[in-house]
UniProtKB/TrEMBL annotation:
UniProt keyword annotations, A-Z: Methyltransferase, Transferase
The species this protein was found in: Streptomyces angustmyceticus
Protein name: Methyltransferase
Residue stretches in coiled coil: none
Single annotated GO MF: methyltransferase activity
Amino acid sequence: MFAPQGPTFRELAVQALSSVERGYDLLAPKFDHTPFRTPDAILAPVSRALRRLGPFDSGLDLCCGTGAGMDVLREVCRERVTGVDLSAGMLAEGRARAGVTAGAPSAAWVRADARALPFGPVFDLAVSFGAFGHFLPRERPGLFAQVYSVLRPGGRFAFPIGAPARPGSPGYWALLGFDAAMRVRNALWRPRFVMYYRTFRLTNVCTELTRTGFDVRLQDLPELGRRPDGSPRCRLVVATRPA
């Protein structure tokens, strides 16, 4: 499906009936040939916005997968970048794809649960792309507290967030149908596979980040266009741990 090099329908079905960790282990070799990888059209504007905020010394890619966000960190960090993910398969693919580039910051790939990060406050920047649907709303305060704990004072946590699909639009019904299917699947099948697209809402997320202690600012990403009412299609959330 998706591309000749991508997973087959059967492979996707097996993944969907696995746990999140096992599912991504299975998908890892073909993940970059699916639409689940964050596209370069989003990564590039985020990278440009972060360059205006930086430079940074050390960066963390939360739920890094095969390393799309690691590429962004390499552009804005001077010393070292770290990717953390629960899936050993995704980490192996990312490590193999990245290789070693002269003059680039050193890179580490760490298998860990984002809800229990094995680091102290050593990062100047944390990013994440497309992973928040794997966390239930009740888990987000703990997740944000973990990110806060690994940032140095003045460190930033940044991620893009798209505007919600207009009610009644094809995108709205597609996301609603996907989330409904996942809820039915998780009610009937174990282990669960948590992936809900409609639970990560900007207003709620900003409130939770503020309660964690972050100073939250929003930046438009005009390269990604505007909605008919003039509002941006995508914003960059920049949450700063106070100095």
